[in-house]
C-alpha cells in the first residue's frame, strides 16, 4: 500500500522533543485502534527525533512502517510516517518543503515556547492528503519522459546514505522499545494494551486473536 | 473452560497429553486410575531426541511437574477437577502434545472448591454478551466493522462497544465466549433429538462465527437456518460483512456470501434490483475491495471478485459496469504497487475486455462518434512520443494520414464497428501499459510491476496475432466476383496497414521499455536483476531487438 500515516513537525530541545504541529491519516485502521495508533505515531516521532543528530536525514524502519526524519541544523525537525512502498525521495522532498514553509511562518525564536495547540499551520493536513498519491502531488516525480531525473534519484540516494535503519539501531545502547513504551507518559493504558497484543501477534497493528 | 485428557504416561515417564486445544487458561483434567498412580510414583524426566529443552527449561519443567503433583493428591480418580492451567510450551509430536505445566489459578476458582458442576456456570455472562452483540448487529444494518479490543480485565464493564457503525469486543471475553458458543453448538449438533429455538441457535452461531469464522460446520448450520426461512437471507449479508472485516481472508465467509448471492438471485421474491448501482453485485465488489485493502495478497478476495464479474456476465446485468470496474481496479493497483494479486486481476480483466467481450464496455462513450478516433489519436501519440529519436517519423506520419483518410472513408457501419473495436481493445492495453510505465518509474524495485510488464508484452503479441486473422475473416465472404477483386485490394492494404501499425507499436513498446530499464538498472542493484530477467522473457517470446518484426513495405 502506498500510504502516508502521519506527519509531524517537532522542535528538538537538548533533552527532549516537543511536537509543534502534527497531522494524521488513520482511516485505514479499524475504528477502536485509531486513537492508540495516533498516540503511537506521536510517541515514535518524538523518540526518533530525540535520537537523531542535527543536520541528519534518515529513514527508519519499524515493522510495517517507515519513519522518514530530518533534523535541521537549527533543531527544527520533521517526521513523516509512511509504509514501505512510499518513495523515499518524495517523502524527503515533502519534509524539506513543509519545514521551510513552517519556518517562514514561525521564526526560530518562537519555537521554544510554541505548543501544539497554539500553532496554526493547517497546510500540514493539506499536504498529507495531497501527497498520498506521490505521482500526482510531486512534479519532480514525473520522470516518465524525462531521463535527467535519474540523476536526482542517484544524488538523493547517495545523500541519504543512512537508509534501512531499523528502530532498534536508532535507539541508544541499552534502550529497548518495549521498555520505552511501558515507561512512556504519553501513552494511555489502552494503547499499551494494543502494543502488547500487537507484539504478541508479531505484526504491528493487526489484532488476530 | 477446556478439557484435557491425559491419556497415558509412557514408560520413559515423559508426560504426553492429548489435548484438543492449544494454549488455554484453565483446564479440567480427566485422570485415569493407572495414570494417576503412575503420575504419583514417577519421577519426571524431560527431553528426548526430538524434544530436548534447555537446562533452564528442564528445571522449570521439573518444578512445574512437582507443583502439579502437589495439587493432584487431593483429587480422587474418575472425577472432574480443576487443575491449574497448562500454559506455555506446547509442542506436538506424533499427534501427542507435550505440555509444560504452569500453575495459574483462575480468579473464580478457589483452592477448596475444585469441583465444577456445570460448564455453563463458569461463564454466566455469555448469553448476555451474545444478545448484546446480536442487538447491535440487528439494529444497525450499516455496521461496517468488527474488531477485538485488547483489555486484560473486565473492570465490570460490558465488553461490547458500539460507536459510529463500528462494533468492538473486549479481548478478555473472547475465549470464554467462544468456548461457550462452541460447546453449545456441538452439543446440539451431536444430539439430534435436542430441540432449540432457532433464534437461540442463530445467536450462538453469531458469537462463534464472529470470533472464529473458519468452522465450516457453523456456516452450514446457518445455511440450514436460511433455507428453512428462520433467518432472513438479506440480513445475512450484513453479518458476514462484519466477519470479513475482522478476518478478511476467510474463505468460508466468501463462500457463504456466494451461496447467499445465488440463493437470493434464484428466489423469485427477491427484493433486489439488479439494474441499479445498489445491486447486490456492486456491494460484493465493495467488500472485496475492503478485504483486499485489509490483507495483502488476499487471494480469496480477488477470486470472489472474479466470481462476481463472471456472474454479472452470465446473468446479463448492467451493473456494476465494466468501465467502473476497470477504473476502480486500476485505482486499487496504484495504491498497492507491490501486490501482484491486484495486477493479476487486471490481467483477467484485460483478457476479457480485449478478446472475449462481445458487448462494448465503453458503450456510454460510443454515442460520441469520435471516440474511435480519440483512441487512435492516443495510440499514435504514445507511439510518437516513444520512437521520436529512433524510428521513422516520416513513415509514421504517412501511416497516420492514411489511417485518418481510411477512417473517414468507411461508410459501412459494420466495418466502422470493427475498426472501433480494434482501437478500443488497444486502448485498454495502452492504458494499462502507461500505468505500468509510470509505476515502474515512481517506485523502486518491485518485482510485481516487472512481472506485469511481461504479461503486457505477451498480450501485445497475442493481440497482433489474433488481428491478422480477424481481418481476413472479414473479407472472406465476398459475394460477387467483380467485387471480390476490389475487396482483395482493400484487404491487402488493410492487412499491410495493420501490420505496419503493429510494427510501430512494438517499436514504441520496446523503446519505452529500454528507457525505463535504463532508469531502473541505474538506481537499484536488485532491480537490475529483475530487468535482466524481463529481457530474457522478451527474448523467449520473440519480442527482443534482434528479432525485429519484419517491416512490411508501405502501400
Automatic annotation (TrEMBL), chain A:
It is a lipid-anchor. Pfam families: Longin, Synaptobrevin. Keywords: Coiled coil, Lipoprotein, Membrane, Methylation, Palmitate, Prenylation. InterPro entries: Longin-like_dom_sf (IPR011012), Longin_dom (IPR010908), V_SNARE_CC (IPR042855). Residues 9-128 form the Longin domain. It is found in: Endomembrane system. SUPFAM superfamilies: SNARE fusion complex, SNARE-like. Gene3D superfamilies: 1.20.5.110, Longin domain (3.30.450.50). One of its GO terms (biological process) is endoplasmic reticulum to Golgi vesicle-mediated transport. The keyword Lipoprotein applies. Belongs to the synaptobrevin family. This is Uncharacterized protein.
Automatic annotation (TrEMBL), chain B:
PROSITE patterns: PFTA. Pfam families: PPTA (PF01239). Keywords: Prenyltransferase, Repeat, Transferase. InterPro entries: Prenyl_trans_a. GO terms for cellular component: cytoplasm. GO terms for molecular function: protein prenyltransferase activity. Belongs to the protein prenyltransferase subunit alpha family. This is Protein prenyltransferase alpha subunit repeat-containing protein 1. It comes from Frieseomelitta varia. The lineage of its organism: Eukaryota, Metazoa, Ecdysozoa, Arthropoda, Hexapoda.
